[in-house]
């Protein structure tokens, strides 16, 4: 049914329903991206494929929206099957890789890949019913008004999830919100079995997620007693800061060990206790920087975590410590569980921020800069393959930190390289390139290393400190992480084989599904929207990566950028509704010029700007291509004979754009800018062919 222009009441109700559906789809998409990697460790480094499969599901649903299949009513069943599969897969292990360093992985097996493909395929299926209903409403409403409702719902869904993630994230209550929204959109006669489906899904979510855990903006965090049992993180377990032999708790993120929370102060332990022996072993690791650089006055610790690097500084008489930690959840947990109490010490200034962003902004000079064990185990964005600490371990970042040292200052960088000699060599090359001097290096059993770079090289340093032994070596040539290629954890510029296997399988399934479900009569016009989708997703990905480099890879920056992108597209749609009566190929001129400017201006130049300059660039220059691309989409979408098919093609294109983002592992993110230009030029070619065909 197509709503007549004079039927304002029905059009408004349909628009509100489309708004709610888009809100629901976006909220559910972000919820699953956040929850599934914590429930199934296997998904930790593939979280962006959750986003891609969501786009694919919505696109396939829009493509079949005219077939009258009424799949929307099956959404609760699809959700139950998906959550049930996640429940059964929660013990699956992360596959290892010869080219990428991953924490706590296992030998790749057929089962690993079966679970991965199963999770992503079922994620597609969840979104097909929502995409079908969205497509039906697009066909019923005027195209641009439908698109405005859709964008408005997506924007509000993004903002709502951001607030939910900050204030009280819970996968259980998130699913309750999804169920409530769906029930509000459903017909009364569907309620009985629909409620049963949601009840089953909520039960499984509750079982998979431990209620004693803490959800930070980045991780699912659990704290464990020394005997391995889980501690309720909402409670403070006794007078930790005054007791003798206080426990040292083990903190895990996404079910794997991450850091200890406790004290290493020898005065707090009985001489022969197990806790005293563990604290003594820990001191050797964290005291090493103060053996190499005695008596520093000002110290900054980036990646402060549970506070052990900070406590080491205080125990060595440091006057002032800046403790920088990106995750507020870890800081909050350390305040409750760490017997040291360092985050409440008046000599310590706690800064919740991205390490790279802090070092870029601060004007302070430090006697000692300590890079703690950041060891990120998550991607910084669902639209990127870059890890949370990707921009911290680049040549430019280390060079910035080195520039924050006093004239006789020292930079200390600790890392767990395991048995990966290539990773050690890569770190040595990176620090040497950034500072211009060969670092002095120490190693401890099990693959722990600490590198030191001096502003004034000392004439003599100790050969050992406890069990830490100095080593020398001349690493062979090889790639080093830069702001354009921020992949410390990759041994070479390539896409790891397991990513290629999973992407290849999903791509093949996507092509088969699209060819089988593409509506009759679809032609080259849908190709135009397909290429716009490819370009848009890649453009959004690059915008997030670029702005995160300028302001930090925090969840807030990512949320603001995603919301800003949606707002820019909404503004473009409004301009077309009010002022642009028809499409002109001349719109591609400002699009390509703005893309060229963003591509050619080096990031180093923008990073050299003061904060106001970086903000101005990010608000004025970075969004311009998105705005012009939005004008092109809306002016051509208005005259589309099949809005749902065009929307579906656009979402399928976004899926392909998501797959192409992985190419950044091989060519760098600057190279992705060429893919963006190629996609938009391809859409221009298709538009020309459509005009030539008289369509």
Verbal overview:
It is globular and about 80 Å long. By secondary structure, it is α/β, with parallel strands linked by helices. The relative contact order is 0.11. It has helices at residues 8-39, 47-63, 75-89, 110-140, 143-168, 171-185, 191-208, 274-286, 288-292, 308-315, 328-337, 355-361, 395-402, 421-435, 497-517, 524-551, 555-578, 588-600, 603-607, 611-620, 624-637, 643-661, 664-667, 669-692; strands at 214-215, 220-224, 230-231, 249-253, 256-261, 298-302, 320-325, 348-352, 366-371, 405-416, 440-444, 448-454, 464-465, 468-471. α2 runs antiparallel to α22 and α13 (395-402) crosses α14 (421-435). β11 (440-444) and β12 form a beta hairpin. The strands form two sheets. Strands 8-7-6-9-10-12-11-14-13 form a nine-stranded mixed beta sheet, with helices on both faces. Strands 1, 2, 3, 4 and 5 form a five-stranded antiparallel beta sheet that branches. Helices cover 55% and strands 10% of the residues. The protein has 24 helices and 14 strands.
Topology readout:
Layout: H1 8-39, H2 47-63, H3 75-89, H4 110-140, H5 143-168, H6 171-185, H7 191-208, E1 214-215, E2 220-224, E3 230-231, E4 249-253, E5 256-261, H8 274-286, H9 288-292, E6 298-302, H10 308-315, E7 320-325, H11 328-337, E8 348-352, H12 355-361, E9 366-371, H13 395-402, E10 405-416, H14 421-435, E11 440-444, E12 448-454, E13 464-465, E14 468-471, H15 497-517, H16 524-551, H17 555-578, H18 588-600, H19 603-607, H20 611-620, H21 624-637, H22 643-661, H23 664-667, H24 669-692
Parallel strand pairs: 6-7, 6-9, 7-8, 9-10
Antiparallel strand pairs: 1-2, 2-3, 2-4, 4-5, 10-12, 11-12, 11-14, 13-14
């Amino acid at each position: 049914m197509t709503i007549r222009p004079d039927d304002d009441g029905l059009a408004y109700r349909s628009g509100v329903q489309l708004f709610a559906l888009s809100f629901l789809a976006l909220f559910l998409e972000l919820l699953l991206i956040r929850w599934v990697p914590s429930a199934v460790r296997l998904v930790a480094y593939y979280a962006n494929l959750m986003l891609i499969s969501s786009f694919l599901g919505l696109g396939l649903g829009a493509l079949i929206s005219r077939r009258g299949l009424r799949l929307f009513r099956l959404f609760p069943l699809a959700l139950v099957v998906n959550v049930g599969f996640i429940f059964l897969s929660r013990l699956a292990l992360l596959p290892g890789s010869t080219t990428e360093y991953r924490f706590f992985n296992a030998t790749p097996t057929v089962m690993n890949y079966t679970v991965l493909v199963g999770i992503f395929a079922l994620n597609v299926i969840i979104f097909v019913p929502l995409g079908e209903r969205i497509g039906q409403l697009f066909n019923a409403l005027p195209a641009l008004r439908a698109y405005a409702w859709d964008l408005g719902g997506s924007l509000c869904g993004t903002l709502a999830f951001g607030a939910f993630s900050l204030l009280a994230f819970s996968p259980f209550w998130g699913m309750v919100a999804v169920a409530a929204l769906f029930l509000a959109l459903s017909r009364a006669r569907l309620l009985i079995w629909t409620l049963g489906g949601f009840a089953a899904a909520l039960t499984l979510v509750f079982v998979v997620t431990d209620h004693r855990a803490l959800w930070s903006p980045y991780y699912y965090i659990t704290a464990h007693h020394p005997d391995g049992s889980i501690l309720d993180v909402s409670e403070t377990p006794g007078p930790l800061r005054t007791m003798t032999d206080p426990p040292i708790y083990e903190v895990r993120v996404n079910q794997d060990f991450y850091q200890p929370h406790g004290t290493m102060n020898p005065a707090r332990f009985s001489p022969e206790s197990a806790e005293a022996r563990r604290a003594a072993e820990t001191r050797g690791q964290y005291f090493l920087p103060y053996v190499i650089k005695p008596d520093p006055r000002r110290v900054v610790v980036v990646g402060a975590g549970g506070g052990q690097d900070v406590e080491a500084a205080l125990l060595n008489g440091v006057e002032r410590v800046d403790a920088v930690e990106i995750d507020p959840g870890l800081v909050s947990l350390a305040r409750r569980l760490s017997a040291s109490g360092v985050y409440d010490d008046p000599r310590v200034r706690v800064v919740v921020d991205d390490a790279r962003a802090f070092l870029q902004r601060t004007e302070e000079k430090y006697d000692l800069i300590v890079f703690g064990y950041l060891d990120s185990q998550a991607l910084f964005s669902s639209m990127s393959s870059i890890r949370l600490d990707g921009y911290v371990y680049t040549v430019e970042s280390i060079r910035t930190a080195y520039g924050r040292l006093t004239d006789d200052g020292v930079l200390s960088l600790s890392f767990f390289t395991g048995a990966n000699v290539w990773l050690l060599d890569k770190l040595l090359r990176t620090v040497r390139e950034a500072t211009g001097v060969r670092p002095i290096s120490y190693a401890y059993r099990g693959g722990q290393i600490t590198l030191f770079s001096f502003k004034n090289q000392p004439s003599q340093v100790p050969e050992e400190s406890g069990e830490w032994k100095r080593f020398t070596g001349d690493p062979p040539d090889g790639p080093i992480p830069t702001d354009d290629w921020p992949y410390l954890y990759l041994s070479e510029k390539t896409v790891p084989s397991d990513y290629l296997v999973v992407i290849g399988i999903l791509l093949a399934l996507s092509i088969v599904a699209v060819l089988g479900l593409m509506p009759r009569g679809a032609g080259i016009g849908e190709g135009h929207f397909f290429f716009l989708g490819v370009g848009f997703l890649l453009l959004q990905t690059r915008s997030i990566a670029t702005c995160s480099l300028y302001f930090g890879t925090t969840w807030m920056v990512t949320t603001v950028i995603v919301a800003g992108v949606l707002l820019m597209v909404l503004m473009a749609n409004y301009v077309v509704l009010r002022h642009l009566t028809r499409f002109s190929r001349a719109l591609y001129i400002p699009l390509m010029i703005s893309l060229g400017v963003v591509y050619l201006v080096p990031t180093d130049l923008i990073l050299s700007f003061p904060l106001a300059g970086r903000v101005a660039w990010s608000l004025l220059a970075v969004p311009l291509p998105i705005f012009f691309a939005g004008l092109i989409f809306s002016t051509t979408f208005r005259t589309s004979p099949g809005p749902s098919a065009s929307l579906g093609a656009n979402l399928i294109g976004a899926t392909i754009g998501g797959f192409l983002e992985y190419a950044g592992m091989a060519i760098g993110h600057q190279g992705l800018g060429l893919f963006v230009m190629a996609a938009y030029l391809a859409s221009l070619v298709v538009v020309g062919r459509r005009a030539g065909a008289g369509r």
